[in-house]
Amino acid sequence: MNTPLGILAAGMVTAVGLDAPSACAALRGRLDGFCETRFLGPDGEWQIGAPVPLPRNWIGEKRLAHLAAGAIAELFEAVPGAAGRAALILCLPEEDRPGRPVRDAAALAARIAAIVEIPPRTRTQIVAHGRPSGLVALRQARRMLAEGAAEYVVVAGVDSYLTAPAIARYLADNRLLTPDNANGFLPGEAAAAILCAADGEAALSLAGLGLAREAAFLYNRQGEDGLDVPLRGDGMTAAYAQALGEAGVTLAGVEYRIADLIGEQYWFRQTALAALRLERGRTEFQDLWSPAESLGNIGAAVVPLMVGMALTAARKGYSGGSPVLIEASADDGACGAAVFHEGAA
């Protein structure tokens, strides 16, 4: 039997709110943070994105550090007893991602710790798998709690696609949403964090977790003559099945889902295929939320943010019900899903 993992608090720094309550209210109201950025898009027009309106114009890793520190500090304000007693798992973009905004992950973690005043000997782990990083981090957090290695675990994610190399590369690959390309994403940035514990008065608890890999990943060029292998959704279907099996529910019993649908058609097809292959017997409406509608592609910050959305919705009474399934996937085929129940485990 898996060790219970409860979510005690959430913190967010986003383009639509600099804390979790304001960000979740904006997301619920379908507000967005899209505006012209300082980066040039096609035809000399400004590229649309979702930058965070920070009080100072920090750049590079210093900007990321302040984004993440703001989200983590919000956790310790909500649960003061966790400060100094929590391990940290930091979710970051993939190491080989074009325009990766992080050069030295360890230095970034140290800078974040200095801002938040986290003790130097705090156990810290780095998970650099992009959007699904938070799901991998939840598995590690559950293991740490089961082993008694920490009383609390902070799962924090920070990322930004708003860098000159990233914009240039994704424009060249025709992957950004522009007036001439409807099949693309809007670049964003954000930080989000959740506080996990094995017990306590949790409003949301992890019930099941699944991790898998999709062979037919985005633009895979693995078929004959360099063509893409067709997507069947095998990876996400396997992740769904693992998470649902561990939680002891079927997809028909899930009340709503939250997904990192960043904008490209591939991700919508993947989610639809997984649902079509597993859902049987449901007739009621099953809502599907996506923070990308308001924030664009926020990379490694998305899973902690989606868990925070579910936590806030459960506490405020506007969730789609219980349980909720949260999914995320990366360009290289890594994908995962998690099932959460409202209330303590």
Helix/strand layout:
Blueprint: E1 5-13, H1 20-28, E2 35-40, E3 46-49, H2 60-78, E4 86-91, H3 105-116, E5 124-127, H4 133-146, E6 152-160, H5 164-172, E7 189-197, E8 204-213, H6 234-247, E9 256-259, H7 265-278, E10 287-289, H8 292-295, H9 302-316, E11 324-329, E12 334-342
Parallel strand pairs: 4-5, 4-6, 9-10, 9-11
Antiparallel strand pairs: 1-7, 1-8, 2-3, 6-7, 8-12, 11-12
Task: Describe the structure using short key phrases.
Peroxisomal Thiolase, Chain A, domain 1, acyltransferase activity, 345 residues, two-stranded antiparallel ribbon, single chain, Ketoacyl_synth_N, alpha/beta, Thiolase-like
Name of the CATH superfamily of the largest domain: Thiolase/Chalcone synthase
Question: The biggest beta sheet, please?
Answer: 10 strands, mixed
**The CATH class of the largest domain:** Alpha Beta
What form results from the Cα inertia axes? globular
Low-confidence stretches: none
Give the beta-strand count: 12
* Straight-line N-to-C gap: 12 Å
Gyration radius (Cα, Å) is: 19 Å
Taken together, the total number of domains comes to: 2
* Helix and strand element order: EHEEHEHEHEHEEHEHEHHEE
CATH architectural type of the largest domain: 3-Layer(aba) Sandwich
Protein name: 3-oxoacyl-[acyl-carrier-protein] synthase-1
InterPro entries: Ketoacyl_synth_N, Thiolase-like
GO molecular function: acyltransferase activity
Domain Beta-ketoacyl synthase-like N-terminal: 133-195
